[in-house]
Amino acid sequence: MRSYKLYLGFMLLLAPLFSMGKDQAVDLLTKGNGYYAKSEYKQAVAAYQQLLKNGFRSATVYFNLGNAYYKLEEIPSAILNYERAYKLTPNDEDVQVNLQLANLKIADKIETIPPFFLNQWWHKLILACSLTTWSVWGVVLFVIGFLVLIGYLFTQALRVKKIAFYAGICCLALALFCIVMATAQYRYFNDHREAILFSGAVNVKSAPNDQTKTLFVIHEGTKVKIDKREGDWIKIELPNGNVGWIGYSTVKVI
Amino acid sequence: MKLKYFALLIFTLYLNKVFAQGGLDASVSKRTIAIGEPFEISFTAKGNIEQFDPPSFSDFRVVGGPNQSSSMTSINGNTTVSIALSYNLVGVKEGTYTIGAARATIDGKSYRSKPIKIQIAKGNSTSHQGSKGAEPDNLTTGNASDMAKHLFIKAVANKTSVYQGEQITVTYKLYTNVSIVDIAMDKLPDFNGFWSQEVKNDNERIPWTQETINGTTYHVTDIKQIILFPERWGKLTLDPLGMTFLIRQVVPSNDPIEQFFGGSYKDVKYKIKSTPVTIDVKALPENGKPASFQGAVGHFSVEASADHLDLKANEALNYSLKISGTGNIKLLRSPKVKFDPAIEAYDPKVSDQITASLNGVSGSRSYTYLLIPRHEGSYDITPFEFSYFNPATQKYVTLTTKGYHLTVAKGDPTSNVTAFSSSDQQEVKLLDKDIRYIKDTTDLTWSTHTFFGSVWFWLLLLLGPLLFIAAWLYRNWYREHTKDVVRIKGRNANKVAAKHMASANKQLQNGDKKLFYEAVYRGLYGYLSDKFNIAAADLNKDNIADQLRLRGKDEAVINQLIETLDLCEMARYAPVVGTSEQEVYEKSKHIIHAIENA
């Protein structure tokens, strides 16, 4: 009960951050959906893009934007947004289906390796709550844990003291877990390790230099893994294990 | 010598007569042959052959036969049947050979044929002799340019600038003022880039007309009329049409008699080509091209019909689309008609009624679809849209047929179609693939201002440990200072009492007796409470006395203390008589001092 109240208190504290322009954003999303329904995909794209530019992020927006791009036959953009939506909601079937359909329309055949189940569980776990939820719970439990431990310091009765000690330790452990989850989620979203190719056809070089040999050619819409970045060049890896260097400007990170 | 030959001749004639009358004749196609050259030997019998023994062909190789043929002749009611048996032979070795007699039984009589001598020569020098008929060599090939003024072919197109798919009629006209013996069409040109349709001319006679060009009169006729549909745009050239003519030309002669009878003539062969024609084909305008346009150019009308609209499930109906008009009707692509997926639709049957005339290709084409609604319900056959380009108005025209509404009643269960299983269930068919529709959840999150990692986050996170450390430090300090509460209190009791006494002295100086007594009272009580660790609740005179006695205090001091306390209590409610305040003060000090030092 106490923790709930605290949580509520924190939410109230943070509320101004969230309420800022949210109504406006929802309006924008509704407008975009309206354009999409009327097959005015260009306007729909503009509305969704505005929403993202304003700093809002949701799987729905990315998914809808991907759909609009798909209808406009801009497949790389569609794939990029589907991938972003997929990152936010890896278990959404609609996103997976549309991503598969979009991938059928690109030049390079992609053998999608089904994600490792442990990885999948891990992503499910870190995405179980939003980043804010994880971090608020972490902080609240952390504070509660220490308050309970303070109670432990000042109580005399042995039974109460024991209970307070273990309860405090549990709270702290839970808090730590929440903070770890929050950190993992933050890193999951902010470590841009994958990208979609946006240039028609790109020669993949053997070194970060234009003069070197072309190892293979990939085409727009292909998803690549970014291994590292060196200046304007990135080292990419394809699902089949091929590795090479391409210009950073040819891709957009997911 | 001569006699000998004569005698032989007579003999042969005689023999001939005998054998001829005998009814079995032998003959060969060639008497002199080369090695390897085939020839035929045939035996002809008049009447029915009952038995036939061929001679030995040991010096030859038999490559064919016996081949039998029969003929029947009837002269003045007299019918003769003759049967021929033939063998194909090939000479193997050089030399002269004799083919022996064949024996046959004809109509019950036995006959022998005469032997035949064959000479086989080396090589094949004689093999081709006379095999080819000689061509009449009185023909000469003339130079076409010589005849250009007298004989030429003109290709006339009714239009030279058309739209792609628009029909053009090309007429090949022959102009001549010489006499033509024979005409042969070399080859019909392949009209590259066009789809062609020849106009069939029914009447056998070729009508000739007269036309005068530059003062020269020509006989003119249409050789060929072709309707062309350009299949691509750009400048397209019609290949020339080539023809070979046989012209009878008068040979100039000096003989007046010959001249009088018309003179001699010769036939000269001329190869004539028509002039090429260039057609400028314009592309169809992109502007305003309807989505349903499939390349129809001309003038059309479209009509849809269905034979019945109220039917039971699994009954068939015919739905037909009839496109009629003039234009490239033969090149129309099969219309894309979409039926309700619940209706089984078969590929359309196409039937044409198209005629090609000088006015162009016209007629109608109908597409008949066989439809079988498999389930009850009501279905719509959507109106069919047909678009064509009208070159006359240079505009696209879109026609729409009537839509139909089908009412399908429940099918007769007994007339169930064999194609369906008894359970009448079928898999849901996936007709097409498309992306899933957009979502409308509004779970927007503010990505740029997250609580995680903000100053608040870290401050609140620090709050817990800081509070804990503070609490821990406080507890330690507190513990240190409250280790022995009683002792400390006892130690401080004198100080506390002295404080109260000082306050009492102050009240005494001020002359406030009531407050003075209260301060003394409090000082004494507080001192005792602290000194002997007696809770305030238990603080009464008896208890105090007991505690003091327990500690072995002097009985006189105890009595003094009780007295003083009584006095102070009383003084709070009533004025004191018999003793001065100064005295009470001194007494109290004395008591405290006494307890303290005892």
Give the end-to-end Cα distance of chain A, rounded to a whole number of Å. 41 Å
Helicity of chain A, in percent?
A: 55-70%
The CATH homologous superfamily of the largest domain in chain A: Tetratricopeptide repeat domain
Largest sheet of chain A: 5 strands, antiparallel
Structural class of chain A: alpha+beta
Main β-sheet, spatial strand arrangement of chain A: 7-6-5-2-8
Shape of chain B: elongated
Estimate the strand proportion of chain B: 35-45%
Q: Figure out the total of helices of chain A.
A: 9
Radius of gyration of chain A: 23 Å
Tell how many strands the DSSP assignment of chain A holds. Answer: 8
The chain pair forming the largest interface, with residue counts per chain, is: A-B, 53 and 33 residues
Which percent band covers the strand fraction of chain A?
5-15%
Q: What is the alpha-carbon Rg of chain B in Å? A: 70 Å
Determine the N-to-C terminus distance of chain B: 208 Å
Stretches with pLDDT under 50, minimum 5 residues of chain B: 15-21, 125-138, 418-422
Q: Report the oligomer.
A: heterodimer
Secondary-structure element sequence of chain A? HHHEHHHHHHEEEEEEE
